[in-house]
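subagent[fold] <- orchestrator: predict structure for attached chain, return tokens only, no commentary.
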Amino acid sequence: MKVSYECGPCYLRQAREALDLATDDENLKMEIMEEIFQYLSNRFKGGINSNKTGSIMHQMIKEKTGCKDPYYKEKIEGNKLALKYLPDVKEILKDDNSLENHVKIAIIGNILDFGAFTLDDDIESVIKSSLNKDLAVKDIEEFENSLKTNDKVLYLVDNTGEIVFDKLLLEKIKEYDLDITIAVKSEPILNDACMSEALDAGLDEFGEIVEIGCGTVGYVDSEISDEFREIFNNHKFIISKGMGNYEGLTEIDLSKKDIYFLLCAKCNTISRDIGVNLHDMLLFKK
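subagent[fold] -> orchestrator:
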């Protein structure tokens, strides 16, 4: 997906957050922010790739601070908090064990920012209220048909914390007797799930976990490894979680893919691109 004017301040917000997590050196933060302004002033214009631009910016921060994983603590806490609430979510699903509710739970995981919650927050009420909300785009019948007619699926995960809720959908997918391959980032970027976080969350219970060969914001086709490209090409049926993967995958030809996007439209640029309202929950086939 291409940038909109609103991506500019979003890059700067992300840069400030990453810098604050990566270093306490105020002089270094000023120096790096100056370089980010210079980088964006040279690169930021209509038609550029949103994910690649953000990936380069975050790589600058990691290299110049020497902190390879600014979100390390946030990722651990995100998984820990989500795992704490997993039994409660399973209880909620006992009342309605439908495929649609499992899809909603996976999308609710995409809505919840586990790094921003504490043990005192009423996450259960957020989950219940979201389950009562209709999917704005609901290609559930097509989705179930794909589960029934394919023998394997590639599942592209998004953030830590969120991946714990993905487990419930993965468990439901297993009922359709599919082989599941779960794709994670090879290097830390933001709070995206890498191999260690996926293993900590127990995703290996449901399928083979593979790395995409890079640590980019979302999916950037030019950066994935040859090994992952072969895996991607060998899967017709793909499930993509989150906005970053949507932004990257819509840059490539998907005409031969049976691909579904599960996400919450959390920014105006994404909601306009898809044609939905801000904060809508979506399951749609591209």
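orchestrator: received. Logging for downstream: The chain has a mean pLDDT of 92. The beta strands are 137-138, 152-156, 179-184, 208-211, 237-241, 258-264, 281-285.
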